[in-house]
Amino acid sequence: MTRRWPPPVAARDPRRPGVTVAAPVERHGLTEREYAAVVERLDREPNAVELGMFAAMWSEHCAYKHSRPLLGHLPSSGSRVLVGPGENAGAIDIGDGWAAVFKVESHNHPSAVEPYQGAATGVGGIIRDIFTMGARPIALLNSLRFGPPEPDAATDPAAAARNRYLMGGVVAGIAGYGNCIGIPDVGGEIFFDDAYSGNPVVNAMCVGLARHDEITLARAVGAGNSLLLVGASTGRDGIQGASFASATLGEDREERRPAVQVGNPFLEKLLMEACLELAQLDAVLAMQDLGAAGLTCALAELSSRGESGAEVNLDLVPRREPGMTPYEVLLSESQERMLIVVRAGREAEVQAVFSRYDLHAEAIGQVTDEPLLRCYARGELVCEVPGRALADDAPQYVLPAAPPSDLEARRAMNLGPLAAETPSVSTLLELLGALNVRSRQPIWRQYDHMNGTNTIVGPGDGDAALLRVKGTSRALAISIDGPGRLGALDPQLAGAAAVIEGALNVACTGATPVGITDCLNLGSPEDPSGYWQLSETVAGIARACAVLGIPVVSGNVSLYNETVDGPILPTPVIGMVGLLEDRSLALPMRWHEADELWLLGSPGFGPDSLAASELAWRRGLRGGRPALDLLAAGRLVRLLPELAGARLVAGAHDVSVGGLAVALARMAIASGIGAAVAVPDGVPSGAALFGECTGRVIVAVAAPMVPAMRAAALAAGVESLRLGDASGEELRLGPGLRANLADLEAAYRTGF
């Protein structure tokens, strides 16, 4: 019998004479119970290679141990769903045999350690998830969270300096990779709060297009078919990166730098073109990106999905560093690599395609009927593991959940005095120049958003990006958004609000939302409040999706986002894709002279609309009880595409950060035309202008269209409130607040 190499990692347990277990330091983050489960799955002790494989695959990053039991509550089916969760990306039917393929992923921990490469490889990884499906990527988006880049009451100069460093590196990494590979970065968001100091959130989304019959799934089938490792050579970068992404950031963050991968966008461009060429041939049966856990993950997921096994000769893996061990080869997360399943006898045909692009394409093994992964090195068996045990059999946890002990006290905060304050020009200008409101142009101008010539509406020009589907009259509306600080007070509402915000962003272009990808960024689930935040966030997303009838077809969960100073705010991020059947009907984020301005949706003018708002947070009022009328918001989401299709509205913009006053100011700046707006009698004007209740949209309507618009809103059960008229060169909000457009724009264009 072939000798297994290396021998089991073992030590005598003094508490249990005669029992041999791995020493804790050698378990790579596995708990005693998890290690015992590994032994049970194998019916023996693992060796060092196998232990590393289990540790990576059973990490939170790969196994979703704490979130998988909750994610099953998310709706994932629908008439348009072609591919749902479980594959590299989700796919939605958009008509005429075309599919939109999309997903969002996090790269938070790597970006906290090495921001440029952390962000760049996050972009590279999400792009591979899309073209692995046989889809050509057409757009990138990103959602970013940082600590304040300038010192304030909660941020000392050293922390602010690091936040600036992280922000600069992340933005440069996103720009460097996306621009070089030739995929436009068309939108996103960036938010600042001291909870993210030293622990940024970096979420990248990619959208692609594919023909239905060219979509490629990731499953190894057919005993005897070949496994080809293609793309870059394997190095030592990123080893145990999955385990690193599943740990709390500590003082050893600099020592974690080797766990961050290094990207090469020029090589990925070649890899993408080669894979897309092969997707049109029947020689390739499956493709799988080598991301977290590297070759181990690709082999495990391909074989598990295909209910098969694999035999691999690790000596055939191309390497860029000498002396690499089997452990390093199997767990390296070197970028720009794919594992593909090729029909037996067609290997040369596939290798010829990669050769034209000067890429490796080495046959390293074959698919087997027996559901085991067997890897050999120097003629010796180094691992023998069921693929399903690695990919699907990790322990799942449902933990004790309890809200933070001070939550009710914070929710009980009285925001009435702030709501009743008389709004002033200085407050409006303060908000327009605030970090969370001001123009993102200094960031977006680093991204090329016109690559591919599909972009109709790019960053900052609308609530969502708009991209044409060439050869058709259609366009895709795409957004990525999160709930700001709502998670600090109500994580369930934050999850629901993120969905509503994304849907309204898309609907404000005139498009109908059709599919969601989500990224859940939270702290440790092992703390009762952390698990409560996670479960509440998922419940909120599920509720909103059910109301809107929109499926979640892909996504990512990123937990343990915390430092010694505490966790980040619960940050659910929603990537929303909408379909506009006739792109000539697209709505701009502008109004015209003499347009009537209307607010659609529940007005939300009560004091608690200021809960978690930018104004309240700036005033040190970090409490209140936010609310959201989900049913009303759902009716508004459905109404907007109807209004656009009937040409009843001329422009639209949703109300979000900064409230109604900031939304009106942004439309005035974009239009170059002022407006006269009256705050309704009997409501606190501070709350009316600066409250941030989700589920409201400003629409511009030509006077002759007003009766039909109102009738349509009434029929849809959507409240409508006349705000005023567009005219002049000033924004007049009631009798006491008048600001000229030049001052508004100067505040909004405040630099970073």
Provide an overview of this structure:
This protein is an alpha+beta fold. 33% of the residues lie in helices and 23% in strands. The longest helix has 25 residues, at 157-181. The termini are far apart.
List keywords for this structure.
about 750 residues; alpha+beta; seven-stranded mixed beta sheet; about 35% helix; globular; disordered N terminus
Report the β-strand fraction as a percent range: 15-25%
Task: List unreliable stretches of 5+ residues.
Answer: 1-25
**In angstroms, what separates the terminal alpha carbons?**
66 Å
The geometry reads as: globular
Describe the sheet with the most strands.
7 strands, mixed
Fraction in helix = 25-40%
Strand order of the largest sheet: 10-12-9-13-11-14-15
Tally of individual helices: 25
Structural class category: alpha+beta
Radius of gyration: 26 Å
The whole-number mean of residue pLDDT values reads: 92
SSE layout and pairing:
Layout: E1 11-12, E2 20-21, H1 32-42, H2 48-57, H3 60-63, H4 68-71, E3 81-83, E4 90-95, E5 98-106, H5 108-113, H6 115-131, E6 136-146, H7 157-181, E7 185-192, E8 201-211, E9 226-231, H8 241-244, H9 265-278, E10 284-289, H10 294-306, E11 309-313, H11 326-331, E12 337-342, H12 347-356, E13 360-368, E14 373-377, E15 380-385, H13 387-391, H14 407-411, H15 416-420, H16 425-432, H17 441-444, E16 455-457, E17 465-468, E18 475-481, H18 491-507, E19 512-521, H19 528-548, E20 552-558, E21 562-563, E22 566-567, E23 571-580, E24 596-600, H20 614-618, H21 630-645, E25 651-654, H22 659-671, E26 675-677, H23 685-690, E27 697-701, H24 706-716, E28 720-726, E29 730-733, E30 738-740, H25 741-748
Parallel strand pairs: 6-7, 11-14, 19-20, 26-29
Antiparallel strand pairs: 1-2, 3-4, 4-5, 5-8, 6-8, 9-12, 9-13, 10-12, 11-13, 14-15, 16-17, 17-18, 18-23, 19-23, 21-22, 24-27, 24-28, 25-27, 26-28, 29-30
Helix pairs in contact: 6-7, 7-9, 9-12, 16-25, 18-19, 18-21, 19-21, 21-24, 22-25
